[in-house]
TrEMBL record:
Any GO molecular function: monooxygenase activity
Pfam families in alphabetical order: Bac_luciferase
Similarity field: Belongs to the NtaA/SnaA/DszA monooxygenase family.
Keyword terms, alphabetized: Flavoprotein, FMN, Monooxygenase, Oxidoreductase
Domain Luciferase-like positions: 24-395
Chain positions recorded as FMN binding sites: 55, 101, 151, 155, 226
Annotated protein name in UniProt: FMN-dependent oxidoreductase (Nitrilotriacetate monooxygenase family)
Domain of life: Bacteria
Length: 445
């Protein structure tokens, strides 16, 4: 029996209104490392497999060509580099894993491979690498680019980036260091290999000036949902990060990924999808619904516009009063931006030729930006029922990436204290950790 894997997405613990919501931290403010360390300890106590940190390096400034709305409302800003925080959390825990995000569009594979190798040592084998292809103009500007790289080229660069990282992680064999005091030989040169990669995007001599880490290489995560993104997932991902909240789209994503995995010569059963969901728990259904409705005041319209525009790389303030979804999709494609996420979901639900009014678009956009529609509200038993249903419908491979729809830490602690025991009672999740590394715990049965 395949059991669900559970991760917590801590990418937006304080943004989009979370900093002031009921149940948020009192007496501590982002980025106090103690907040994350305390949550890591609690999550490990509940058997959560991984704490996940998405990332973006720019302040959203696509909406009306200004960052003012994002700064004013705390929209996906501020965001620290979480690698030092992970090093601190690792010292307070021993089993839970950590997923870090770096851009293959702007970063260099040698730097990232070396950093993640070191963190895998520090955490004793508990690191995952979420590989992203960046499609946001604010991020591009911070790395000296005037516009976005061609969509498909971003994924070609990503695949070469991962290839280089893999070769670097393999460039020093286990046992290379012999440290023989009698002979004075420190290491065996026959086990240290140059890479000499000369590709389209990168030239790297290698080897990595490091010894193999406990996992050999980090667990690789990828979240592409476009046809080209799914092909990249099939090429190298150990686990895929998928958008939850709409079961037909999830089933379609799973089917398209399986087809791509077969085409890539890989077994579909070996690659799970962690579906992004939000959970609101209550002792009764009425209490859970009431808690969910508190989300309605969390984001004003200006903040919604800033959120959607940034994540698509397209200024939605320019929308006319009425338009066809196909027209918007075409404009985004021409800008080399991304249709993944909100617009992709609208097209899946309504069809590419559907027309919408501007007012209706932003009403739906609020539901997406807050995660309202992907938030499962109920008692531990009814939420567990829904997760089991979705897990079975999408092939019983992978599990769920739980985001906090209300506040940190209360909504995630509810998952640990209320939902996990119910899932464990049903045998839907494991009873503790199967091994010591993230690879053993996240990718095992």
């Amino acid at each position: 029996m395949n059991r669900m894997k559970l991760a917590f997405d801590l990418s937006f613990t304080h943004t989009e209104g979370g900093w002031s919501a009921p149940g948020s931290w009192v007496g501590a403010a982002y980025p106090d490392v103690r907040m994350f360390t305390e949550l890591a300890i609690a999550a490990e106590r509940g058997g959560i497999d991984m704490l996940f940190f998405g990332d973006g390096t720019g302040i959203p400034d696509t909406w009306e060509s200004s960052m003012d709305a994002a700064v004013r409302h705390g929209v996906q800003w501020p965001r620290q580099d979480m690698s030092p925080f992970v090093a601190a959390m690792a010292q307070a825990t021993s089993r839970i894993g950590f997923g870090l995000t770096y851009s293959s569009t702007y970063m260099h594979p040698f730097y990232v491979a070396r950093l993640l190798n070191s963190l895998d040592h520090v955490t004793a084998g508990r690191i995952a690498f979420n590989v992203v292809a960046s499609g946001r103009l604010a991020d591009a500007a911070n790395y000296g680019h005037d516009g976005l790289m061609d969509h498909d080229s971003r994924y070609e660069r990503m695949e070469e980036f991962v290839e280089v990282c893999r070769r670097l992680w393999d460039s020093v064999e286990p046992g290379a260091i012999v440290a023989d005091r009698e002979t004075g030989v420190f290491a065996d040169p026959s086990k240290v290999h140059r890479v000499d990669h000369d590709g389209t995007h990168f030239r790297v001599a290698g080897p990595l000036p490091a010894v193999p880490s406990p996992q050999g290489r980090p667990v690789l995560v990828q979240a592409g949902a476009s046809p080209r993104g799914i092909a990249a997932s099939a090429a190298f991902a150990d686990v895929v990060f998928g958008l939850g909240g709409h079961l037909p789209s999830q089933v379609s994503h799973r089917a398209r990924l399986d087809e791509a995995l077969v085409a890539a010569g890989r077994a579909p059963e070996d690659v799970g999808i962690l579906w992004a969901i939000q959970v609101v728990l209550g002792e009764t259904e009425a209490e859970a619904r009431a808690k969910k409705e508190r989300m309605t005041g969390s984001l004003p319209p200006e903040a919604v516009g800033a959120y959607l525009s940034y994540n698509h790389g397209f200024d939605f303030s320019t929308l006319p009063e009425r338009f066809a979804l196909a027209e918007v999709a075409e404009a985004i494609t021409e800008a080399q931006a991304t249709q993944a996420g909100f617009l992709q979901r609208l097209i899946a639900q309504r069809g590419e030729d559907a027309e919408m009014e501007r007012r209706e678009f932003f009403e739906e956009g609020w539901r997406f930006a807050t995660g309202y529609d992907q938030t499962i509200a109920g008692t531990p038993a009814t939420v567990a029922d829904e997760l089991e249903k979705q897990f079975a419908a999408t092939g019983s491979r992978g599990g769920f990436m739980v985001c906090n729809p209300m506040s940190m830490p209360s909504s995630l602690l509810d998952v640990v204290h209320l939902l996990v025991p119910e899932l464990r009672r049903r045998g839907a999740v494991g009873d503790g950790y199967a091994g010591t590394t993230l690879r053993e715990n996240l990718l095992g049965a």
